[in-house]
């Protein structure tokens, strides 16, 4: 079994170059299929989700190639089928974007049910509602669903809840649909804007992305083009939080600081010194960490994907902190693992009450999802002794090389095969039973 090993690493220091955003990349890879020519993307991270999309795409004739410079080219002209393998398409979250992107052109798409990080409930009713209002018909099977539309038409769609996924999916479907689509109560996330900017580059008629009303007028043809993916604000935020947990100073470069607004403001409140430049942000500890509260929300509110690393930071702040998780009220799988390391956290009805400062102790813990994994790496940096984190495959869905990135700021971290350690009495620190 692979595990990430983290040894006590106080006072981290260094610079991390932030890669392209996973969440934008997942939307863009599907959006490219709307084109009638070849698309080139710069900055798509080589994460597990990308690799599975390449495999899934290859099976239906969708050619996705990465060249030696890291650029990814996609040629949608060779698509010969729109029946995606259900197992592969269920191994990540966003296979549903291929429905939105391919439906107008091909009239029928089948994919597996969405996978990705499991927060108990992640409905897709707003995706279904939007596509049905545009004329799509869903048929549900045990492991996959089929979506058909003789002709997709524009519609005025009001989202009952703000959702980045359904906003992007409806936008993809509307680009080649007949007539005008208006999306009301749309998500304003940077990834929505990035997808819209790319689509406009290749000829889509979209206005209003970044506001809560997006208008799309369907077009018949889209050209090729080149687009650079926006930087991953969630990786950047996690490294800034890391400086608070371990102490020291971390600079994240190649970022769009505006995307980190709520995170930066919170870190300042908690006691970190933040220096914002044109395309970099530095977080430095001041030796003080104040207890605080966060309430997650859709952009520009505090991102749910930074809630888990922030919870680790609160374990190191003296006093009582409160974490209200409003997007995924069950996104607290990391809490049990942090408690195993000595954290004092209670969860009630979607709210975590964190009492700090706790002296954490290294042990074997398990990452249930990407950000839970990151929160455990951060905890391992200040825990006494050694922490082993299993569930590495979850972390690798979102990070190309988390170990290398954390090493670059001085964290003592490696990826190891831990089976032999469990069976070897000389490795007393590696405990079983995660
Ligand atoms: C690949 C990707 O981009 N993943 C991100 C995306 O997920 P994802 O796109 O799945 O999340 P959404 O923005 O859609 O979800 C926001 C909220 O809307 C709810 N909802 C969503 C769709 C729907 O049909 N019905 C519904 O009720 C969700 O349960 C959640 O409470 O945004 C989440 C919220 O910022 C992030 O945690 C994920 O990292
Ligand atoms: C929840 C996440 O990812 P996904 O939506 O891909 O499962 C995440 O990136 O934290």
Mean pLDDT rating: 95
Q: Report the sheet with the most strands, covering strand number, pairing sense and barrel closure.
A: 4 strands, mixed
Number of strands: 23
Structural class: alpha+beta
Describe the protein's topology.
Layout (H helix, E strand, L loop, with lengths): L1 E6 L4 E6 L4 H10 L7 E4 L5 H12 L3 E4 L5 E4 L10 H4 L6 H11 L1 E5 L12 H9 L3 E4 L3 E5 L7 E3 L5 H12 L4 E5 L5 H12 L3 E3 L5 E5 L7 E4 L4 H14 L1 E6 L7 H10 L2 E4 L3 E5 L8 E3 L11 H9 L3 E6 L8 H8 L3 E5 L2 E6 L7 E3 L3 H13 L3 E5 L1 H7 L3 H6 L4 E6 L1 H4 L12
Parallel strand pairs: 2-14, 3-13, 9-10, 17-18, 21-22
Antiparallel strand pairs: 1-22, 1-23, 3-5, 4-5, 6-8, 7-8, 10-12, 11-12, 14-16, 15-16, 18-20, 19-20
The structure holds uridine-diphosphate-N-acetylglucosamine and phosphoenolpyruvate.
Subcellular location: Cytoplasm
GO cellular component, one term: cytoplasm
EC number: 2.5.1.7
């Amino acid at each position: 079994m692979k595990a990430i090993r983290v040894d006590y690493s106080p006072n981290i220091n260094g610079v991390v170059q932030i890669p392209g955003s996973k969440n934008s990349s997942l939307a863009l890879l599907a959006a490219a299929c709307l084109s009638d020519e070849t698309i080139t993307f710069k900055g798509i991270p080589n994460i597990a989700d990308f690799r599975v999309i390449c495999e899934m795409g290859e099976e239906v004739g969708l050619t996705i190639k990465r060249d030696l410079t890291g650029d990814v080219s996609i040629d949608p002209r060779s698509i010969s089928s729109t029946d995606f393998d259900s197992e592969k398409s269920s191994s990540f979250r966003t296979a549903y974007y291929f429905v939105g992107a391919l439906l107008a052109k091909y009239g029928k798409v089948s994919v597996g049910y969405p996978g990705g990080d499991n927060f108990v409930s992640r409905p897709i009713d707003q995706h279904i509602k939007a596509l049905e209002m545009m004329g799509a018909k869903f048929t549900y099977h045990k492991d996959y669903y089929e979506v058909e539309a003789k002709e997709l038409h524009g519609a005025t769609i009001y989202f009952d809840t703000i959702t980045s996924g359904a906003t992007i999916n409806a936008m993809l479907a509307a680009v080649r649909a007949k007539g005008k689509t208006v999306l009301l109560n749309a998500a304003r996330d940077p990834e929505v804007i990035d997808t819209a900017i790319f689509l406009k580059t290749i000829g889509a008629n979209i206005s209003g992305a970044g506001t809560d009303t997006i208008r799309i007028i369907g077009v018949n043809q889209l050209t090729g083009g080149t687009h650079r993916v926006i930087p991953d604000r969630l990786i950047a935020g996690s490294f800034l939080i890391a400086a608070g947990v371990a102490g020291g100073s971390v600079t994240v470069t190649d970022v769009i600081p505006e995307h980190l607004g709520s995170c930066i403001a919170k870190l300042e409140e908690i006691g970190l010194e933040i220096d914002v430049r044109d395309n970099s942000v530095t977080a430095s500890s001041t030796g003080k960490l104040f207890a605080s509260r966060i309430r997650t929300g859709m952009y520009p509110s505090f991102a749910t994907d930074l809630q888990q690393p922030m919870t680790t930071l609160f374990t190191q702040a003296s006093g009582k902190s409160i974490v209200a998780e409003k997007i995924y009220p069950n996104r607290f799988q990391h809490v049990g693992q942090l408690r195993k390391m000595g954290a004092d956290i209670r969860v009630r009805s979607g709210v975590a009450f964190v009492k700090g400062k706790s002296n954490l102790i290294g042990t074997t813990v398990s990452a249930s999802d990407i950000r839970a994994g990151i929160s455990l790496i951060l905890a391992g940096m200040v825990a006494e002794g050694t922490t082993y984190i299993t569930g590495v495959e979850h972390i690798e869905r979102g990070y190309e090389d988390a170990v290398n990135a954390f090493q670059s700021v001085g964290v003592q971290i490696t990826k190891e095969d831990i089976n032999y350690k469990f069976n070897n009495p000389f490795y007393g620190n590696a405990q079983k039973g995660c």
